[in-house]
Amino acid sequence: MILHKFKNSADLDRAAADLIISMVRAKPNAVLGMATGGTPVGLYQEIVKTYKAGLVSFASAKTFNLDEYVGLPVTHQESYRNFMQRNLFDHIDIKRENTHVPDGNATDVDAECRNYDRMMFEQGPVDLQLLGIGGNGHIGFNEPDTQLSRGTYKVTLKQETREANKRFFNHIDEVPTHAVTMGMGTIMQAKAILLVVKGAEKAAILDATLNGPITTLVPASLLQTHPRVIVMTDCDVDYKVSF
Ligand SMILES: N[C@@H]1[C@@H](O)[C@H](O)[C@@H](COP(=O)(O)O)O[C@@H]1O
Q1: What positions does UniProt annotate as the active site of this protein (predicted)?
Q2: Distance 12 CA to ligand 1 centre (A)
Q3: Domains and CATH numbers, the chain
């Protein structure tokens, strides 16, 4: 893992956006893994700025999102398809058919999960996977558990995760109880991973991710086993590596 620390969120957003942009410039048909939540909003805005300045094109790029809520219509403000359209896809030249978000309203969710994995297998591997991290160390919606999933699957969200995400809804009862998420197996197959962690409240979980034991109880800690992880943060955490 390589850790980059930033004094402020704006510099972090710019650097994270530049990494994604340099990937697409180097490989116009790059396959990007995208994330949602509050963390990537700023870096998506920086990507849009660079696109509008005519300095990058996503016309041949493909994207696969990590996850989607089950049971939220895509017209709902907080569906992740809606989030991605609003924060990025509607503002750049990527083709809609090249953007993929799991369908949380599929009648057969298990078939949808298998279909998502097949599409990723056929069109992947992901060149650069963008990740945020949940307060409990979840990646995508891979919640802490005694075991983790290889492929895309339907997950029951932890109460602490619903509590953390209720800020985007009017009431906790509106926060979905289930989601579809890429599995840790799929995430770890990405050629490179960019983990973005913002806010002092995430310092403890970032420390556990970088320096703690590798455990399914902190899914993000599995990133210690991946050969190419770049961590960008404004948290005051160090990566304790001794050679
Ligand atoms: N499924 C998403 C995750 O992909 C995201 O990393 C996490 C953190 O979100 P935030 O960046 O808002 O703290 O929230 C959600 O649960």
Answers
A1: 67, 136, 138, 143
A2: 17
A3: 2-233 (3.40.50.1360)
